[in-house]
Design goal:
By secondary structure, the protein is α+β, with helices and mostly antiparallel strands. It has two helices and 21 strands. A flexible structure which links the flagellar filament to the drive apparatus in the basal body. It is found in: Bacterial flagellum basal body.
C-alpha cells in the first residue's frame, strides 16, 4: 500500500483530536474559572531511503533521502492566563487576581484527605456556616492570630474550615483572604484566612472536572500561603470579593483554529482520496 494512505489517516486522527479540544473550549466559554487548552502536532518518524555521506576526493557530499510517515499528537497544553472579572454582588463569590488556586477538600483538618485546586470561586456558606464549593467541598483556610491592640491579623499554620456562625450579624472577606464576621454581641471575630497555592508549572496540574485540578509531579513545587504573602511568592496575588473569574476562552481564536483544523482535515482526506485513485489506476492496468 502507498505510504500516503497511512500519512493521511494519521492526519485525520490528529485533526480530530484537535477538533475535540476546540469543541471543549467553546462548550466551556461561560464556565467560571475555566482555562482553555491548545494542541500541537509533531511528525512521527521517517523511512530512510539513502543515508547522507560526506564529500571526498573527486566527489561531493550527499544529503539523506527520507520519507515521512505522518503526524501525531505532540501536546495538549492548558493556558493559565487570567480570565475576565464578572461582578456578582454576592459576598461569597471570590476571584483570584494573579497566580494561584483556591484549595478545597472533603476534610481540611485531616492531612490524609486529598486536596484539590480550583480557580472557580463560586462559594457559599452551608447550613453549618462553613464556606464550601457548589459540590460541598470545604474551602481550606488557616487559623488566625489577632493583635488585640492593632487589630492586625496574622495567619497561623493550622488548616481548618472557614466557619461563620449562623447567629452572626454580617461577614466580610478582604483582598488578603481574611474572613471576618460580627457575632451576636456585636464584636468582630476572625473566622480564618483563605489559603492559596501556587505551582511552578500550573499547566502540569491534572483536570478532574467540576472545575477542579489535582496535583501531579509535573506541576512542580507547591507554594501554599495567603494572598499577598511575599514569602510564598504570592505578593502579586489577591482576592477580589463579590466577583468571579470567567473563562479565558477567546471565541475569535477558537473559531479561527476551527477553520484551520477543518481545512487540515479536508486536505488529509483528499490525500487519501487521491492515493486511492492512484491505486485504482494501478489495478486497472490489467483489464
Amino acid at each position: 500500500m502507498m505510504r500516503s494512505l497511512f500519512s493521511g489517516v494519521s492526519g485525520l486522527r490528529t485533526h480530530q483530536l484537535r477538533m475535540d479540544v476546540i469543541a471543549d473550549n467553546i462548550a466551556n466559554v461561560n464556565t467560571v474559572g475555566f482555562k482553555r487548552s491548545t494542541v500541537t502536532f509533531k511528525d512521527v518518524f521517517y523511512q530512510t531511503l539513502r543515508g547522507g555521506s560526506a564529500g571526498g576526493t573527486g566527489t561531493g557530499g550527499t544529503n539523506p533521502q527520507q520519507i515521512g510517515l505522518g503526524v501525531t499528537l505532540n501536546s495538549i497544553d492548558v493556558v493559565h492566563t487570567q480570565g475576565a472579572a464578572a461582578s456578582t454582588g454576592n459576598g461569597t463569590d471570590l476571584m483570584i487576581q494573579g497566580d494561584g488556586f483556591f484549595r478545597v477538600s472533603a476534610n481540611p483538618e485531616d492531612s490524609n484527605t486529598p486536596v484539590y485546586y480550583t480557580r472557580a470561586g463560586a462559594f457559599h456558606f452551608d447550613n453549618n456556616g462553613d464556606l464550601v464549593t457548589a459540590d460541598g467541598l470545604y474551602v481550606i483556610g488557616y487559623d488566625a492570630n489577632v493583635d488585640t491592640t492593632t487589630g492586625k491579623v496574622t495567619p497561623g499554620t493550622n488548616e481548618k474550615k472557614i466557619n461563620v456562625p449562623a447567629t452572626s450579624q454580617s461577614y466580610s472577606i478582604d483582598k488578603t483572604g481574611v474572613v471576618r464576621y460580627v457575632d451576636s454581641n456585636g464584636a468582630t471575630q476572625v473566622a480564618g484566612v483563605i489559603t492559596i497555592s501556587k505551582f511552578n508549572n500550573p499547566a502540569g496540574l491534572e483536570k478532574l472536572g467540576q472545575n477542579l485540578y489535582m496535583k501531579t509531579s509535573s506541576a512542580g513545587t507547591e507554594n501554599t500561603g495567603t494572598p499577598e504573602d511575599s514569602s510564598k511568592g504570592l505578593a502579586n496575588t489577591s482576592i477580589i470579593p463579590s466577583a468571579l473569574e470567567m473563562s479565558n476562552v477567546d471565541l475569535a481564536q477558537e473559531f479561527t483554529d476551527m477553520i484551520i483544523t477543518e481545512r487540515g482535515f479536508q486536505a488529509n482526506a483528499r490525500t487519501i482520496t487521491v492515493s486511492d485513485q492512484m491505486l485504482q489506476e494501478l489495478v486497472n492496468l490489467k483489464r
